[in-house]
Structures are given as C-alpha cells and as structure tokens.
Amino acid sequence: MPNQSLKPVSIIEKDKYLAFELNKTPYAISISLVKEIMEYIKVDPIPMSPDFIIGAINLRGDVIPVFDLSVRLGKPQQTCTNRTCIIIAECLYNESAIVIGLKVDMVTKVIDILQSDIDDVPSIGGQFQSRFVYGLAKLEDKILTILNILRILTLNNLELVTELNHAQLGGKADMSNTEQIHDEADDGDD
Fold this sequence. Notes:
By secondary structure, the chain is of the alpha+beta class. It is 16% helix and 39% strand. The chain has helices at 69-72, 149-152, 155-165, 176-186, and strands at 14-22, 25-30, 34-39, 53-59, 62-68, 85-93, 96-104, 106-114, 118-119, 133-138, 143-147. The chain is globular.
C-alpha cells in the first residue's frame, strides 16, 4: 500500500516570455506567440501603409507584414545593427491565426515570470496610453513591460494583415480590399 502521508506538491506555474529591447528599454511578449526569431532582412515596402508598417517579407512562401515596434509605441525609429531582428509572432483574430513580424533592436533572453508577479498598469488618468500593455512584471532589479501584441494592431491593421497573410506570392491576388484598408488607415490608425 502506497504511503498516503505524503502531501501533493504544489507546482507554481511560471509563464515564459521573450524579452527584447526597443530604444534601450526592455519589453517582453508571451513566448506562446513567438513562432521564430530571425535576423533582420530586406523588407519590401507596402504602398500607403501606416508609418509603423515597414513592409512585408516572403517567409517560406508566406507574406508576412513587418511592424517597426519602436515607431508603433511612439518612440524614434532605430537604425538597424547586426543585433536587429524580426520576431515572427502569431495571434488570433476573428478565430483565425494571423502572423506578423516585429522589428526589435535585439532579443535578450527567455525568462520565466510568475503570474502573481505581473501587475496591471496603474491608472494615472486618460493621458497615459496603456492599451498596448498586458502588464508590468516585477523582476529583482527592474520592471519589465509585457506587451499585448493584438492590441498593438488596430482593426484596419488586422484586416490588412489578414489580407497579406492570405496573399498568393507570384499570383494576382485581389488587392482592392487592401487598398481600401490603406485608405482607411490614412484616416487614423487608433
């Protein structure tokens, strides 16, 4: 008969996050969203796209739009270095997976963070744009901002990404919806 005096061990679950830098400031996203990390490559511009969409890349036959995360967060655009990379992330929109590239200055590490160590962004009035932030992680020596990737995209951006993800390379895709989305994006992206 097994020893029943042993108590079950409580397992504290930690979530994994990919930490990276933008303008020398640390940020992170959930590792569950990350498909791959690649060195920065040439990005083909998309006409009439918002300023934070650099363009698109061909990743093994898939069209992936690339966002300059610094610009999207209202920070200055950074020059590419040998540490600049693109995080290929996947999130759910309208029950469909969409894939985007996020240009970051450098990826630093994968870290474990307890859910209990993540706080909501404190409310300091309507002037603070916290809608892009999932939470603030309390680490030993600093606070790490965890971003909500889906909220970084506006409705128009999500529709554009969906169109681009379904575009056929080498074929003639119907781009009339994409052009309309670009026109709407010019009217305001927030």
